[in-house]
Amino acid sequence: MENDVDTQLKPILALVRQSVSPDRLNTIQESVFSGCWLGQTYQEIADDLGYDAVYIRGIGSQLWQQLSKSLGEKITKSNFQTILQQRLEDGRESVEVAHVAERPKSGETPHPSVNVISDSPSAPISRDPQNHGEPLSASGGQKGEGDDYVFRPPNEERCYSKIEQQGALIRIKAPRQLGKTSFMTKVLGHAKERHFHSVVVSLRLADTDIFTSLDRVLQWFCAIVDDQLGLESDLEKQWKPIFGSNYNCTHYIGQTV
Q1: Domain architecture of the chain: domains with CATH
Q2: For residues 144 and 21, what is the distance between their CA atoms, to the nearest angstrom?
Q3: For 90-126, how does the pLDDT look when each residue is reduced to its tens digit (9 = 90+)?
Q4: CA-CA distance, 254 to 257, in Å (whole number)?
């Protein structure tokens, strides 16, 4: 039976492992981290593990540097508990769901037709021509439900429910390397099981000149959707400058998709 200390350490260690990924913590590093978390000095940790205190201090120093680099802020033995606890809380509240569904027209049955999800530059998604429309891991491999996936109830169920609603918007927020891509892939996998069509849009695929104007960005976005769904609509003909980019994009998504 786990005691309170083990229960508290388990999610913190999971957070640290994710933060330093793809690097891995070895047994000594985890022991040093756990000892520091329990308030032990380096000398006390060294005595418990049977190592020299200078060596253990060096392990601790390397660990704080590694976490500082991964988390983007200075981590030390004196502040790591406060920062990691806050990061853990932020991760638990990482998914904010904003329902922006429009009221369906009279007599129209609401149904989700396309889930369009745009990933941030910090979490690129690789694509394989042989897996058209399938989300892949950042390394290019097919992402599954292996032991590395950390469930975040009730966030999964909230997202599963929202993708059933027409016009819903899901925003995923979390610090770097805390599983945003895996979470998104999990939700898209559920959408596929429900026979929904998905479009994965990575802003990294856009040339820099695309971002010179809002009109080009929205037209590029619509073209990506059109291409991945194989709609073959005449986007250039539908895109009328007199209406402006906001109207053109809204009209295209509403009428074509």
Answers
A1: 4-92 (1.10.10), 96-256 (no CATH)
A2: 17
A3: 655 444 444 344 444 444 444 333 343 433 333 333 3
A4: 6
